[in-house]
Amino acid sequence: MKIVILDRLTLGEDLDVSGLNRFGTVLVYDTTKDDEVIEHIGDADVIFLNKVRLGEHNLKDASNLKLICEAATGYDNIDLEYCRARGIAVCNVPGYSVHSVSQVTVSMVLSLVNHLPEYAAYTKSGFYTEQGAANILRPVYHELFGKTWGIVGYGAIGEKVAEVAKAFGCRVLAFKRTPKEGVECTDIDTLMKESDIITVHLPLSEETRGLIDKKRIDGMKKTAILVNTARGAVCDETALCEAVGKGRIAGIGVDVFSKEPFEKGSPYDTVKHLPNVCLTPHMAWGAKESRERCFSEMLKNTEAFFRGERRNRVD
């Protein structure tokens, strides 16, 4: 059996992938560009991937392909309809990154709320030592206690973030397709208008694409902060960057982008230098423990498939 890893570097160079060797011959590519997919897949029986986009245009000649293993919970990069028609199994890994993503989400919120980079710059530059006063208290920062924290998407990650928000003394609002007991659920427009902190934890689908649009961004409080560690296309990126760039909202933290990496000329390229903007390179999911958990689950998915069992199948 032949197994191909299409984008090894997205899993982290430190991750041990040798466990795949027990299934057969393993061919590893650090990266795979769009025009290299067909060549790299070749006659593979199994594909391991993270971000490469797969559909009829690059799978139609993969006659041996039986299984695609996605190194993520989301699988919007794979054409499921085509895979079903071809009888190609597709597996994802649900739940593996809850602790990692929620940790980074809260870290972004705290950094933006407390203006930590600006305060740290005072000491690094020597200004704190030279100016003589015992304290520097600008820019002004505020407690989270008593604020409203809106959580868009109340799955496992959203629920974990809510635990932290409540520990800080926040009122928590949640936007969830199916309301859940134990949290104050509301519609998306109310959440966007009333929240001081907004964190986004939705998968990307036709229903969620562009959900946080210009109208909803413009309806946010001027003092509000938005953090997105879910999927870039859930937000109108142009409207979001325009709002923070013109001071209509207080700050943004973004780890995910509709095109990754974002290019020169992207809306984010115009605001990345601002002190109230925190942009990270799609790393929130990737704590070492999270990546090890993910790969372990991918191996179990593969074992189950060849035993004739359905495990984490999304096709």
What does this structure look like?
The chain is of the alpha/beta class. It has 2 domains: 2-96 and 288-306, Rossmann fold (3-Layer(aba) Sandwich), CATH 3.40.50; 98-279, NAD(P)-binding Rossmann-like Domain (Rossmann fold, 3-Layer(aba) Sandwich). It contains 11 helices and 12 strands. It has a 7-stranded parallel sheet, sandwiched between helices. Strands 2-1-3-4-5 form a 5-stranded parallel sheet, with helices on both faces. α4 packs across α7 (156-167). The protein is globular and about 70 Å long.
Rg over CA atoms, rounded to whole Å, is: 22 Å
How much helix is in the residues?
25-40%
End-to-end CA span = 22 Å
Number of strands: 12
Strands in their spatial order, largest beta sheet? 8-7-6-9-10-11-12
Count of helical regions: 11
What's the number of structural domains? 2
CATH H-level superfamily of the largest domain: NAD(P)-binding Rossmann-like Domain
Low-confidence stretches: none
| Residue fraction in strands | 5-15%
What is the second-level CATH architecture of the largest domain? 3-Layer(aba) Sandwich
The SSE string, one letter per element, is EEHEHEHEHHHEHEEHEHEHEEH
Highlighted features:
5-stranded parallel sheet, 11 helices, 315 residues, Rossmann fold, 7-stranded parallel sheet, alpha/beta
